[in-house]
Amino acid sequence: MLAHKTFLKKTRRGKILKVVREHYLRQDLHCGWKACAHCAVAAPSEASVEAPLNTPLTPPEVSPCEAVASPHLLILDTNVVLDQIDVLESGHLADVVLLQTVVQEVRHRSSPIYKRLQDLLAQSQRRFYFFVNEHHADTFVARRPGETPNDHNDRAIRRAALWYRQHLGWAVVLLTQDADNRQKAQAQGLIALSVETYVRGLVDQPELADKLAVRAEQAHDLTRPALFPEHWAPAAINRGVKNGQLLVGVFYLSRTNYTQASINVEGRDQPVLIQGLAHQNRALDGDRVAVELLPAPEWRAESEVVLEDDGQDPGDTITEDHAVSGSTSRQVQPSGKVVGIVQRKRRQYCGVLLPSPVPQATRHLFVPAEKKIPRVRIETRQVQRLTGQRIIVTIDAWPRHSRYPQGHFVRALGPIGDKATENEVLLLEHDIPHSKFSEAVLACLPELPWVITPQDESERVDCRHLDICSVDPPGCTDIDDALHCIQLPNGNFQVGVHIADVSHFIRPNTPIDLEAASRSTTVYLTDRRIDMVPGLLSSNLCSLRGGVERFAFSCVWEMDPEARIIQTKFHKSIIKSRAALTYEQAQNRIDDPSDETSVTQSLRQLMSLSKILKQRRLDQGALVLASSEVRFTVDSETADPIDVQVKQMRDTNSMVEEFMLAANISSAKRIFQEFPDCAMLRRHPAPPPSNFDPLVKAGKRQGYEIKVDSGKALADSLNAATDGKNAYFNTMLRMIATRCMMQAVYFASGTIEEPLFQHYGLACPIYTHFTSPIRRYADVIVHRLLAASIGADSTYPALLDKKSTQNIANNINYRHRMAQYASRASVNLHTHMFFRNKKRDEIGYVLFVRQNAIQVLIPKYGLEGTLYLRSDTDKSIAFHFDEDEPSQSCGDVTIRLFQKLRVQLTLDSSNVQHEKLVLRLVEPHIPGFSVEAISDDETSMEEEAPLAGSTPSSKIEANAKPTRKRSSPQNSKATPKAKKGKKS
């Protein structure tokens, strides 16, 4: 049967076109009940597109719900799926029909919910059935003239529900949140209920009511006074954006002051400053918001106050105090207020329950683990079971009269303090995909034993005769690069960078490719690694291990003795690494004059060329910045940290890095030359001059002029700023410079102008990532482009579409940023575990001076801590803040930037949700404020060598810590666990 779908389409020029499409209808689509006599022969269904694992319906003999007398099927409308997905995932609802009309609308309105819905359909035990109602002749509903899409969809859902009742003769319950839809359904003889009514009627599942989302209309209480301004309507926001009255950007809450935020607006050099809870107007970190600029006389500077929520519930009040305002001596910046939420950052949050002091109360406060998220009011009847547990909560609404948003309980994770639970919280909080790889993904893996065939040998360059070796951190199993160097008869050198050929095993648009694209990066935590691709590839078939044959993608140069590139070739190859060395092993071989093996000679030539390459980069203005990198020594039985130390850098680290940088640059030039509109590149924008104000001021106070006119000027200034009396001065100055940088990002070449391609930190005009396809999806895309450019592989439509490439880049940027945050959080977690039940005095240096606190660098542990300038015992102790110097004074003691201190470190576990490392001043001694030093046998006071901190900017790329490589725990005491990677 043939029907026609008609709709109107507006062209770019504003013309309205009437589009008519043929729509095929069938009678033989299965209803879902396995024993259905009317559907004895199941026909192939379009359902396979949406739900490849459809499962049959088997309604129970008795009704599970008091609100419905007889056994029944459930049919859901779109808003039920969008709002109550946690209820659907709970496992307590079964025999649910999901209509094509609903699934398509969910797909259009929310990609995350659509993905979760697909997962539900794939679970055979759940009995969720996808029915293609829009292609069934008896359930298709044509659009009426003047009918809205919402009314049409509601009518289609009711039509399908009536058909199911007539077709099977069972009771059918339509769950809908729309009162008008319920009324119309009931008028047609259907049973129509709200989700709340149905869930509260499930006699055996009373706790399921805790998972009900709070609807916006339920959250508002017009009888209570408003605390926040009303949000503008969407139409008003659109008009305001068009006429320039409003700006739109992403809302980022400060990590050090919960009353202060910034909004990054595309096209503006400076972010918009938001100060005060009223001006934040219920925006959450990560929301896309509309902001109205305040009049210029009301613009402010960023506050120097370090302000944390004290954990006390102030009730439904907001108080704006003096701590919010910025200091008058700092440069003001555009300030504004949030007037509307364009798009919420919908996600779940981990944390703990703060039980109400009222006995038998059902409403309680939830305290998120993420300090940038406010507490959430939830309703639960399981307070006794959930107290002391880490739980997950979703925010549903934030009414004007409430100090906090309202949400609902999702599930419990486990006991507070349990290591497995805390690691799960860390992953969930940073949105790290960490579930097991699906069967569909694993089905894409090659069968074992994997062998190289004669056809493979005919299609690739044989490099097995070359003295190729890899150099990596100890315990590294995902080895994705190897090197070789030989001298040519003409006196030049052939240098090869050989990269794991991951794209050979991951073909476009396969389940494994889609999963890798979604994850985008391997995440390295202190005690584990979450792979982007299954272990068979990451640690075996793609890992360039010593002594085994592997596929590689090779970048081979001819270089003269001055490391100038004469020519560059790319080819797919077969290699057999002679050795998989650690940085230390490679360094020892290079330094051993008695070692004249071919591999060692190759390493020495590579080292010599790398030093020339590095010096040339530095001469061109590449930055050398700094970061604090630590590694933990753990107990083999408990996996708890028993020691922590700053990571050591060797010349071999720099050697490998230089050739990785060179390979990345050569790859970028090649793919941009061949694919100027869709090349996957990476850029590092130059920071606006105002970003450097803290650095310039810090240098000036120490008698050094820091020039920021160009990257070269900045690099020369930092090189010249040394202090013979303070070994850490230059390192700390570079750490401040790191915080002034912009974030490096991936992008599609056709989306911006070529002058914006530059990588500021590396001082190069074009850059990409080619050298780590095992752990970065961007490199996989680059490999595919390179393969197409040399005729080794074919292209496909998405690869040549700049919009598709940019969408991939956006996801990679997000996943990369979250992976960095998760890695840092993992270090913090293990640092807290190390300092539990310990008290230590250590040497520290003043890194920043704030209005009410000092941020201190502890070189021995490579960590930073905050020393709050308040006395818990003597309230008369007062510090004077001199912002111009900057310094803090108390009596005759003055604490200045970069000053050496002695501090005492302890872990404050009084707040189980937010344990924190507490710093107390030992020296210089301030009566009534400083604490007594602990005995020598209880602490280690020796000074360490400067941080591994002259870390090239190529490693940290715009304020991002280097990625670490880690292996699984080894069976020995004091096993190093936090190992740093080498790729930029």
UniProtKB/TrEMBL annotation:
Pfam family, one: RNB
Keywords: Cytoplasm, Endonuclease, Exonuclease, Exosome, Hydrolase, Nuclease, Nucleus, RNA-binding, rRNA processing
Chief location bin: cytoplasm
Composition bias type Polar residues, residue spans: 325-334
Listed Acidic residues bias regions: 934-945
InterPro entries associated with the record: Dis3_CSD2 (IPR041505), NA-bd_OB-fold (IPR012340), PIN-like_dom_sf (IPR029060), PIN_dom (IPR002716), RNase_II/R (IPR001900), RNase_II/R_CS (IPR022966), RNR_Ribonuclease (IPR050180), Rrp44_CSD1 (IPR033771)
Family the entry assigns: Belongs to the RNR ribonuclease family.
GO annotation (BP), single: CUT catabolic process
CDD domains: PIN_Rrp44-like
Domain PIN: 72-183
Any one Gene Ontology molecular-function term assigned to this protein's record: RNA binding
Superkingdom classification of source: Eukaryota
Required cofactor names: Mg(2+)
Protein name (database record): Protein DIS3 homolog
Domain RNB residues, every copy: 460-792
